[in-house]
Amino acid sequence: MDLRPHIEKFARRFSEVEAALSDPKAFDHPQRAQELSKEYARLKDLVANGKSYLKIIADLAENRALLQSEPTDSELGQMAREEVARLEAEGIRLACEVQRGVLPPDPADSRNTIFEIRAGAGGQESALFAADLYRMYTRYAENRGWKCESLDSSASDLGGYKEMIFQITGTDVYKRLKYESGVHRVQRVPATEAQGRIHTSTCTVAVLPEAEEVDVELKPEDLDITVCRASGPGGQGVNTTDSAVQIIHRPSGLIVRCADQRSQQKNKARALTVLRSRLLERKIDEENAKYAAQRKAQVGTGERNERIRTYNFPQNRVTDHRIELTLYNLPVVLEGALDPFLEPLMAHDLEEKLAALKL
What we know:
alpha+beta; three-stranded antiparallel β-sheet; 11 strands; flat
């Protein structure tokens, strides 16, 4: 697709938003000012990427012309070939960034994210794998400068987690991590397996954009809120006060429990945050149900009945089944190196959406 008209459109809109924000009256309406500020930040990056993309296109043309005029074995010709390869790779990356700007922005992309990891089939090995996944995501978040905070957890007797709920806050968290929703499968030889047989187990991962109060209205009369003493390790502070909070949402039947903070008020606030996010996800799923057939083939639908990735320890292999991508660096991936999967997933998702819009 020809990106020049879109880049010019971004530049015009950027000038309009910049002018609007320079007017003091814009801040008489805080909500509108916030929306303009977000659009300004988004357009600023798009305009910068657009300028870089157009420069690379021009540089590519010059270097290709140089290749045509220079002997293939000359030093200048070799340098031009290397530069063409570098510029082509950078041009593809910038083109993807500009193309993303063509699509209507997803308001959820800029939100903080709640992760829910649950052990599935496989018993104790599944609980241990849940702990591996939790470590993988927290390491990835640390590498990107994001903040992780535990909301609730249920430890397994022999190690690992039956369930782990935590929040990641930062820039574009949901935009990058929403593709992690689904069933993750692990294949490895458990420590307790005497004959070296490979054991297969699974965990489910749910990735929820943090809901705001305006997204989901929680009526006090619809909530049953109880407090109790937290269980598990924690000693003096956790186990001796009624700090754990459980909330039942009567209309939906959803139950949320938070116990990882010593303060009852903090646990209540976090439980309400998780409840809003689950209700928002349910609301979005219901709205999208009518388009299920169209969306089924798209990446990142978040359907938890689909196996999305396999981690095979004997073969040192990680395979993402949605884009048929396999890498042989399992320990590195489990240390948080997720971008080699996330970048192709984002690019594939972009292709699907652009194709749906016939762009």
